[in-house]
Design brief:
The chain has 2 domains: 225 residues, no CATH class; 132 residues, no CATH class. The longest helix has 18 residues. The protein is built from 17 helices and 10 strands. α10 packs across α11. The protein is an alpha+beta fold. It starts with a helix and ends with a strand. The relative contact order is 0.12.
Amino acid sequence: MNPLIFQNISKIIERDSKSTTYKFALLRGVIDIIQDNSPFIAFENGRVIFPTGLLIEKWMMYYYPILESVTNIPQINGETNIAFGVHLKKIITAYDTMGGFSAFYNDLKNKGIPSDLQDDFFALAKKLKETITAMPMKYIGRSVSDDYYSIFRIESRSVRQNTSDVDLEFLIKTSGTFSIPVEYYEAFKLLGSFISGQDSILFKWAEFSVNASKKKLSVEKVVNEVLRGPITEREIEEAKLIYRNILKKEGKVYCVWTGKALSRYDVDHMIPFSVWKNNDLWNLLPSNSVINNQKRARIPSMEMIEKRKDIILDYWELINENQTQRFQKEIRVSLLGNSAAEDWQQAGIAQLKSSCNFLITNRGYEEWNI
């Protein structure tokens, strides 16, 4: 891999414009999408293409807790007013009595934004896209090149779509795409978790806000708010109810990893919650308690998934029958991407293998087999 790319990334983080936190949010967003091994990532002519909608969603998740916080956390030198602040605060205010940050995330991911908030949500998404594409995308890389859009490039514009489902999938389909050179993608894939870790983007973001507050805040306080996410706990109650109904009806539930009948069982996150805070129904399958304890934070190998493919698919079909809308939305965004709807079972297994292999080979998590 070209070491010049890593030098450029270092220069971008340290030397590119520091008038706002947008640069940090853009880099963090792209790295998070890559680290998620999103099925929407595509490759073309030496560039890697991403849905802009995924980036918009990331920014919503990053800035929501910052603007909701009772602590003044500056995002622009000397002030807290950001380009999309008014729009995001409308959403925050609306959700204040509806469950807050986690409820907003759940609506965006699963239920859809309520009809009475859709106009405000559209305005927010539009302003976020304008901000992202006209500011950090344009200027990132100026420390290593005199050209605008020297790294990030807008590939396609927004696409109109008439639908009542306004959710993450809607954002992905309607917000267009952007790209980066494949060399930067490879660097972010290899070292992204370090780049956005303690020694870089998140702490630089916090340090910026501390300095902008004239040292009235601490790095620790800012980092706590910046890192706060909508999912903080394992949420398995709905999956438990599905399997409880199976046990009541069929009399048997089978361990996903051994195939043995169970009368008592754990609901296992196939991709561990500690690795990927994902409570999607496709990721929650019944497991023998002892086996689940042995697995812990380890990642199922590609061979293990292939060996247990039939029972995984049986459970997916069962969940799909019981919770079709939620299951299909979750698996499309997390595993299927642009794959054909009629082949969702095989495409889902293939992406599950790919995601697990990515976590093992690229991010260094321990492989698990029985």
